Amino acid sequence: MTFSELGLNTALLKSLAENNILTPSEIQEKAIPFILNTNKNLVAVAQTGTGKTAAFGLPVLQQIDPSLQQTQVLVLVPTRELAQQVAKDLFVFSRHIVRIHTEAVYGGKKIEENIKKLEIPRHILVATPGRLLDLLDRKIVDLGYLKFLILDEADEMLNMGFEPDIDRIVRACKPKVRKLLFTSTLPAAIKQIIRQYM
Ligand code: AMP
């Protein structure tokens, strides 16, 4: 299969070609058409290095309305490093789409800087759970327009003790928000989240 056959638009195909990403990986072949063509939640078991960021990033970018200046996608990640990496990948993939803005927010950076940046809502927020909750409590982030909630490295977030935070965040989202969960393992705690929310 080609990325074009999976249903991606020319702007995304152009960025992929420029970055020499030419053949979809297995997770991309499965996830991209599913995310583009259904309204269902997704549980995907995939390790880092399999192309999982593109597997959710590309079809989600294609479904953002750039003219609606509201947070439409929230990606929750366990660490600052992953937040930066995911935001960078999404920035690269969206280079030829006009006016899609992504911001990464994570603990360890001054929250005042996040607040200043988020005066204009970003289409995509990539966040660690604690910092996102802090911003929600301060009413800096509005999840009312959210279309996709993505839990990236969900098993790692649970290992790090983020389960209560994830519970609060999922409950702060409207029930119709599509949930995409990526994990490298399927322990009981992940199965519990899947049963409860997905
Ligand atoms: P990830 O699994 O998201 O951490 O991606 C690992 C790396 O593979 C990233 O640097 C991606 O840019 C790259 N990548 C993603 N998809 C592909 C692909 N289909 N072909 C080649 N490289 C890819």
Mean pLDDT metric: 97
Overall geometric form: globular
Number of strand segments: 6
Describe the biggest sheet?
A: 6 strands, parallel
Order of strands in the sheet with most strands: 1-6-5-2-4-3
Q: What low-confidence regions span 5 or more consecutive residues with pLDDT below 50?
A: none
Helix fraction bin: 40-55%
Determine Rg (CA atoms, Å): 16 Å
Which small compounds were modeled alongside the protein?
adenosine monophosphate
For the record, give the distance between the C-alpha atoms at the N and C termini, rounded to a whole number.
29 Å
Note the total helix count.
9
The secondary-structure class comes to alpha/beta
Question: What is the chain-wise order of helices and strands?
Answer: HHEHEHEHEHEHHEH
Share of β-strand residues: 5-15%
